[in-house]
Fold these 3 entries.
Entry 1:
Amino acid sequence: MADPMRIRAQAAGEKATVRVLMSHEMETGQRKDAAGKTVPAWFIQEVTAALNGKPVFSAEWGPAVSKNPFLQFAVKGAKAGDKIAITWKDNKGDSRTDEATVS
């Protein structure tokens, strides 16, 4: 399983800015290793976010996203103390969910 995501959520007025740094190798399936064999594709396909259990964000990604991707988005109606949960799923069936509190 991958390392925990680094999530920072800061409230400002009627919205919160959420910043997420995900730990994932993100292979495209086009690179070759030292022996000349193609490295199999391995990338995050789906990213979702929930505020206090209610879905607020969803994205579908492909192999063109960089290693250890960074994501930033804003959520209306979030306030200090709310919980934001981020989940990703990759093309090999692995997934990870981490949670942070809006400050």
Note: The chain has no helices and seven strands.
Entry 2:
Amino acid sequence: MTMILIGLGTGGCSVSRNDTGALAKMDDSDVTGSVADQAREAPPTETDLAFARNAASDVLSKGDRDSSQHWENPETGARGSVTPIAQAYAAEDGRKCRDFLASYVNGRTESWLQGAGCQTSHGRWEIHTLKPWRS
């Protein structure tokens, strides 16, 4: 009779049980400080906002009612999408404008930005506000 042994490599990982029999759970203190601090608070950088503005201009140019435009900053890893949230309206100066929401995700940080853009005389949409969303 041939005996076959099957081994599972754990790669240095271990599982421990506490007195209640539950598996050990990781909490914030189990993450190194440099990673945890960076992951908790990652406000948008100027380049993140530039990528979001560009996506907003692109999606507003399409003029679709139900479209979104993805954006990503490869330098910071920040990403999100921009979605128009209202019909176009006329600004005081007569330009066509539209409001939008932009999601912002970077590490554990997730938030929303609100903005507005207006169409220039050349037909391009210029983003004139982009700030943290206040509900």
Note: Residues 1-39 have pLDDT under 50 and may be disordered.
Entry 3:
Amino acid sequence: MEKKSEILHAAFKVFAQKGYDASLLEIANAVGLKKQSLYSHFKSKEEIFYLIAEAEVSSYFGSLGEQLKNIANLNTEESLRCIFFSIAEYFKDVEKLKFWRWIMLIDNDEVLFKCRNLIRENELKNIKLLSEIFAKGYENGEIDCSVKEGAMSLYMTIIQGVLDGILFYSELMDIEVYLKKVWDTYWWGIKKK
């Protein structure tokens, strides 16, 4: 079992760098095995990738779920800010971020379908929670009702943009300052004035 975990750990790093196109030989080399030895632990590259994706999706949504427990008594701004910064914090590990970016570029329809479904199942719960937070914000007069049609969509889009920023600019700028500026600008744009 220990060798299996070691292979998955090494494969995660290889997939994060090369995506699904990474070969079994590259994975075997990363763990110091012969390619044929991988088959004594796994059926295929597809199985390895999916097991890693499954573990990573579970880790991310588990981490986010822990943060969401802390927002029950917060106002709308604090709740949305907490989620925003929690997601950014999780993905400051650029290897994780790279791996997630590769998931949607898989050139294997079966694995892509399984990974997308796994993510969607988890994401639907978060979208429901976000909808409730935004509804509370409109109801309590914290968010400007004139932006009601797009505030949540923009929030989700900004998170994706911030993750791209972390991926591409983490060595060029202070990410904490970047995140704060993005958040402050977003909130200023939707808050009730």
Note: The chain has one domain: 52-190.
